[in-house]
Amino acid sequence: MNFRIKVDPETSQKYIATHLKGKALLMDPFINKGTAFSVEERDRLNIEGLIPPVICTIEDHLERVYENFQAKPSPIEKFIYLASLQDRNETLFFRLLHERIDEMLPIVYTPVVGEACQRYSHIYRRGRGLYISYEQRDNIEKVLANFQMSNPAVIVVTDGERILGLGDQGIGGMGIPIGKLCLYTTCAGISPYSTLPITLDVGTNNEELLRDPLYVGLRQRRVQGEEYQEFIDRFVGAVKRMYPNVLLQWEDFLKANAIKQLHRFRNQLASFNDDIQGTAAVVLASIYGGLRITGQPIRDQRLLFAGAGASGQGIAGLFVESLVEGGLPLAEAQRRIWTVDSKGLVTQDRSGLEDFKAAYAREVSEVATWQCKDRSRITLEETIANAKPTILIGVSATPGTFTEEAVRLMAKVNQRPLILPLSNPTSKCECTAEDAIRWSDGRGIVATGSPFDPVHYKERRYRIGQCNNAYIFPGVGLGVGVVGATHVSDGMFLAAAKALAEKVTAEDFAESSVFPKLSRIRECSHAVACAVARRAVDDGHADASALIGLEEKVHRAMWFPEYLPVRYEP
Fold first, then answer.
1. 27, 138, 236, 365 - which has most CB atoms within 10 Å?
2. CB 2 within 8 A of CB 30
3. 215 given a catalytic annotation
4. Beta-carbon contacts of residue 160 (< 8 Å; ≥ 6 apart)
């Protein structure tokens, strides 16, 4: 890299040391601070006359860039503007996100990032991160070396095949690793100087992209089977050799591949899948938060899934672990889960069941006594009426799955039902937050996967908590890094869920929200990081000495976006 962060031995103040001068310095987004360079810096760095003479503060810059942000006519134009800001001034970009996190997160991540991925080849401006194509399979280490980062803390990688609920976006999936790493920095203070987004380009089966003359990825069908796995193996092998201490996060792979890669590599390096484990933790946190409202114990909960994707598998596994910790035998805990997919309730007599569906398939004898029209296709509503779940979770990516009848039935069998339509982006949500509140007569405890405005119903205001993985994975990464954990266990995510739920206040509950306000997310990430670090030590994946002064260690590790003095040091 072109700079290093140092500490002045005389003043104990941080500064940026760089070998760059002149225009080259102003072109580096990690160093550039525009008109905030002092008179002395301008002289020593040979940038006098290259920028206007006025000397501004970061607050001046924030006023200007926010004015420009507001002037953009659409969410996608706002996204493009923020991306260009990040390309020229990283510090200012992250300070803007920090100061206006409620407004910025839906732009840099869900839901707007979904549209950005779909339009990636048409709004492409400047490369960020690394694009490793199948054609480069014999030179992966060389490609990694081109990024010129000796010791990244976090890599987020995708192959673009299952982007949010939008499917195969090919190389356009790069928007997801970039967005995720923005959240690592904004929410948990992981330094942007130590993050690396990667897209593995193995082609695309998206016909629209293949026909698009502006598509910037490999114009071929996806590599699959043994060739695909060999490519992934080579990639992980190169990462292990070059960055043995990095945390590798898998993101938006097709369900079967996501599960396979997680199990294949999780014991080889610190690694996790946010779609599976991060989603599970944030959903479990919402359940724990909801139970603080209802006063019920976790062991009494009954969960019904609408949909059966990779995220559902992760949620189910962590939910079962929480029930076992709450005192239930494993077999009984597993029987507290029902799954309804596009073919109806999953039962054991259905042939060709995937492992996840088979694990929670219901016995035929159980449903034999149920009241339903067609036992070969038991509906979501019939399952609610007969199984009487306390929690309804949507991971179907199918709008309208939570019908008015389904929500009203949940309110009929529960005084305070937990209703969680989690699919995103917003266009894929099982029902709107307003529908969930209204159809449950205001008694539903609602959290969603996409952001929704507060709902006003019967003279009461309901703040809709978003099951945003940003509450979990940045803190997990921070905790893993602080103690140097060598493995990321499921227990760490259970600890993270509990820590997050404990950050919900009486003020939050008064608005029926099971999540803290986003303005407190760095505080939440600190709590999650400490809980993850302690669990890492308990599980034997980090040395106990790392816990000495843990709270302060985590605090010191959290980067804050502020302009530092810049010095020329050849």
1. 236
2. yes
3. no
4. 117, 168, 169, 170, 171, 172, 173, 174, 176, 199, 200, 201, 204, 217, 252
Distances (CA, A) of 246 to 85, 95, 102, 195, 288: 27, 25, 30, 10, 31
Distance, CA of 381 to CA of 366 (rounded, Å): 17
Q: Where are the domains of the chain?
A: 3-56, 60-269, 277-467, 471-557
Q: Span 3-56: which CATH code? A: 1.20.1370.30
Q: Note the CATH number of domain 60-269.
A: 3.40.50.10380
Q: Left (φ > 0), alpha (ψ -120 to 50) or beta: where does 237 sit? A: alpha
**What residue type is 487 in one-letter code?**
H
CA angle 162, 167, 172 (to 5 degrees): 80
Residues in contact with 208: Cβ distance below 8 Å, sequence separation at least 6, in sequence order: none
pTM here is 0.94
pLDDT in tens, 424-478: 878 889 999 999 999 999 999 999 998 899 999 999 999 999 999 999 999 999 9
- Single out the residue of 477, 561, 527, 474 nearest to residue 188, CA to CA: 474
Q: How many helices (H) and strands (E) does the chain have?
A: 26, 17
Q: What's the token pair of residue 561?
A: 């976006």
Dihedrals φ, ψ of 272, to 5°?
-155, 165
Please provide the DSSP assignment of 316-373 as one string.
HHHHHHHHHHTT--HHHHHTTEEEEETTEE-BTTSSS--HHHHHTPBPHHHHTTS--S
pLDDT tens for residues 328-380?
999 999 999 999 999 999 999 998 888 888 999 999 999 999 999 998 899 99
**Exactly one of 78, 180, 255, 357 is catalytic; which is it?**
180
CB atoms within 10 A of CB 106: 21
Q: Do 471-557 and 277-467 have the same topology in CATH?
A: yes
Question: Is 142 an annotated catalytic residue?
Answer: no
| CATH topology for the 277-467 domain | Rossmann fold (3.40.50)
- Catalytic member of 109, 184, 215, 288: 109
Domain 471-557 coded CATH 3.40.50.10380 = yes
**Whole-number Å distance between alpha carbons of 481 and 503:** 22
